[in-house]
Amino acid sequence: MTRRSASRPETGFANDRGANILAARGDFPVLDQVVGGKPLVYLDNAATTQKPRQVIERLCQYYERDNANVHRGVHELSERATWQYEQARELVRDFINAAEHEEVIFVRGTTEAINLVAQSYLRPRLVAGDEILITEMEHHSNIVPWQLVAAQTGAKLRVVPITDEGELVIDAFANMMSERTRLVAVSHVSNTLGTVNPVAEIVRICHHYGVPVLVDGAQAVGHMPVDMRAIGCDFYAFSGHKMYAPTGIGVLYGRRAILNGMPPWQGGGEMIRKVSFEHTDYADLPSRFEAGTPDIAGAIGLGAAIDYINGLGRENIAAREQELLALATEALQGQPGLEIIGRAPHKGAILSFVLQGVHPHDISTILDREGVAVRAGHHCTMPLMERLGIPGTTRASFAFYNRDEDVAALLRGLHEVREFFK
Ligand code: 7TS
Asked: Which residues line ligand 1 (CB under 6 A)?
């Protein structure tokens, strides 16, 4: 592996910006540190990515020069804050190729976006016996909000199965559709298996039956080109913190015609046109769904992260992450007693595995002593663990800034695990 990293030419990149990818690691100050006496090897990017200096500096700049509330004051600082906040919305619109900037609603993250759709879009439309279709590989954030709304209305959840390799059974979307199906919710990329789902195809099938689709894009947006108009979904949810932006900011994309027909989710300032004690007229999109002071700095930070990603090129980021995934998969496949969980042909750079006779938590604890940060457990996909018949996995998840040496460090760590349990 050392030989490979020393001699590896920068092949596989879509254009010459690709060469910048390897140097871009230097943009992430947090990566350059020693933990417990070992250099940090950060392989927990599916939980949250690190933030480049460009994003951190943008946040500082905003707070040091421009901080004010948005859409309220007529003073200079408020105008600057409002302009930057709305500029960030436009950056998101362009980044996901949404048709209109009003289709981009700033929320706290994926979880809040899905809850918003469950309560504002779906709840008024559900009656007892209606059905919501999800899949076996969903994160709790794409299960529990639907269970809540089902409990409130008497609707039922139905669950599309996966194969043992960790792929969705695509035929099931058509086969499990009924005249009672009111919404399909599916992840773009599984946070546990890494599987990239054919969401455009799924949307086509569901729309054929007239059923709207929400895509949970938490693990996709920072890692591959994502195009609302190509996917054709009705809702798309994602979190800034998984794409090099701050925590506390995320996006609900919704098709304008659908959002327009939805009642507000939360009431408060910003989301109204006129209020009296008897009656309130609500504001237009997107303000109607952004009650109260939003995470202004977060949105601006998300804009900075998008600028940063665009600078590197999403296709280059994807190419480098695929390279890391291939390297790590090849290395782990040869390990005795190790089984990779999630073997779909098309995967994001997420590598879950189990090691015979060793609990995932013990693996992650020993890896931590070696400076290697991974996640262990059910990864907020307990029903998936049950389907697979395992208590949990150890998960290494990569970002473009990981080095080939990080894979080597993971392997060394696993060697230590084996020595410990010999
Ligand atoms: N959906 C998926 C597919 C996710 O991976 C996550 C977070 C969420 C939704 C929720 O996102 P949030 O930003 O609202 O919390 N996944 C993980 C993970 O895999 N490890 O930590 C968080």
From this structure: 46-47, 109-111, 139, 141-142, 187, 191, 216, 218-219, 239, 375, 379-380
